[in-house]
Amino acid sequence: MTPDPAVDPAIAPAIEHDKRKHHWTGAVRPMYARHWLLGPTPRHAVPEEGMPPATAYHLIHDELIMDGSSRFNLATFCSTWMEPEAHKLMAESFDKNMIDKDEYPQTAELEMRCVHMLADLWHAPRPEDAIGCSTIGSSEACMLGGLALKWRWRERMRQEGKPVDRPNLVMGTNTQVCWHKFCRYWDVEQRDVPLEGDECVTNPERAAAACDENTIGVVGVLGSTFTGHYEDIVAFSDALDRLQERTGLDIPIHVDGASGAFVAPFLQPDLVWDFRLPRVKSINTSGHKYGLVYPGVGWVVWREQSDLHPDLIFNVDYLGGTMPTMAINFSRPASQIVAQYYNLIRLGKSGYHAVHEACQDVAIELARKIESIGPFELLSDGRDLPVLSWTLKEQPNWSLYDLSDRLRDRGWQVPTYRMPANRQDVIVQRVVVRNGFTHDLAGMLVRDIRRHLDWFATQPGLKPTLIGAGFHH
Predict the structure, then answer these.
(1) Which residues of 112-143 are buried (b: 16+ CB within 10 A; e: fewer)?
(2) In a domain, 28, yes or no
(3) Which residues form the domain of 139?
(4) Left if phi > 0, otherwise alpha if psi is -120 to 50, otherwise beta: which for 201?
(5) Helix, coil or strand: residue 432
(6) Maximum alpha-carbon separation in the chain
(7) What mean pLDDT do residues 15-27 have?
(8) pLDDT per position as a tens digit, 151-196
(9) Residues 336 and 375 in one domain
(10) How far is CA 144 from CA 68, 78, 273, 363, in A?
């Protein structure tokens, strides 16, 4: 090798030795991720220098191992499995911004096909003319449904020359937190109907009694987050019909079908809860729950176009053409819409029925086994949503919070929580059965529950404790 004339000949051999050592160290020595991770990587600042893609991948991949397994997460309603063909379609459309409807007209077409399919599934009077849109999830869809109720109420009150500064929305205390957010964000009084006695869902008569001329609507829940029960939407409608006969108040219903609106049409097709009831003006659902799509898609559909005030539709012309948009969020990938359309045409009604029936079979059988163990009392057994929940018959020397904590030793994530007002003295444990949770896995869960109950029995000094500050029996 020709020596570098700028280098002192006395130290040249040492420099060449260091170069060879560095070269061979980086190329041959079997060090994990090579020398880029010899020191810690900044966690709260952008690093000065980059690193190879494989190194960045391994760094993040290894941290994510610390997360729980999504397949063993029995708390979430969100889908955790899709077919490889769906994965491929999603990967092919990650780079498309679904809001750019002029640039991606076929994605826009698929979105509207999904809206019309759902409108037909939910018995809209004219599904082909239905108005609706995709959203990030049911939370955004609920916001849009609530805003449409508020705008419709406000216009009617103005026409009657009445004040519009005190709108309220009637809902049960078992509604999802997104409705509390809606009321706070858009300055609407949250008029709660507490659960009473042994109720798990909202009493329709008490909901109607909470209404007045400032009520923008009533929220009915098709699939309670707490227990999986359906609320009786027909009973809500009947109670509001009687209220109108007595007072003249015409109160609309929004059905929060985050989970149930993708289950009831297939498992309980004769159940009346949707646009077959004229008082139901809008419905939302989560495509990423029992719509069987990975997290990131929801839907809202209105009964008729007149139920969505035109002020809530914006026309934008800076994307290459004039396009209407009604969602709160703007840019997001087209992948979830494509995946939803894939599921709808891939499965059809018979396929969705088969998938949900399999989940329900597992839920009902698991509920039977849980009840047979001894200390548990079922609150729901999977006959509405494929969801089961239970409480303790009496207080042993352990709590359901303790059992949840122990079940994590094999990766099970089984949530424990209090029921809403006025039943906060009831502590509940719940399992959501999703596509992919099999009879075999359910059997493993039951064996692990029995194993931990046996362990509790050997701990006579164990005191009833609840994981988390401020919770006491």
Answers:
(1) bebbbbbbbbbbbeebeebbbbbbbbbbbbbb
(2) no
(3) 85-346
(4) beta
(5) strand
(6) 106
(7) 49
(8) 999 999 999 999 999 999 999 999 999 999 999 999 999 999 999 9
(9) no
(10) 33, 21, 20, 32
Q: Which residue has the tokens 């209407």?
A: 324
H/E run at residue 355: helix 335-373
Q: How many structural domains is the chain composed of? A: 2
- Strands across the sheet with 298-302, in order? 131-135, 298-302, 280-286, 253-256, 215-221, 168-172, 189-193
Domain of residue 294, CATH code: 3.40.640.10
Whether the model clears a pTM of 0.70, i.e. scores above it, the answer is yes
What is the bridge-based pairing of β-strands 387-392 and 323-325? unpaired
CA 157 to chain centre: 34
Cβ contact 227:317 at 8 Å: no
Question: CB count, 10 Å around CB of 234?
Answer: 16
Do 323 and 375 fall within a single domain?
Answer: no
- At a CB cut-off of 8 Å and minimum separation 6, what does 31 contact? 38
Question: For tokens 């997290």, what's the residue?
Answer: 295
Which pLDDT tens digit goes with each residue over 388-397? Answer: 999 999 888 8
Distance CA 97, CA 89 (A): 15
Whether 285 and 134 have beta carbons less than 8 Å apart is answered as no
User: Same domain for 125 and 229?
Assistant: yes
Is 319 found in the same domain as 399?
A: no
**Amino acid 321: pLDDT:** 63
Q: What is the pLDDT of residue 245?
A: 98
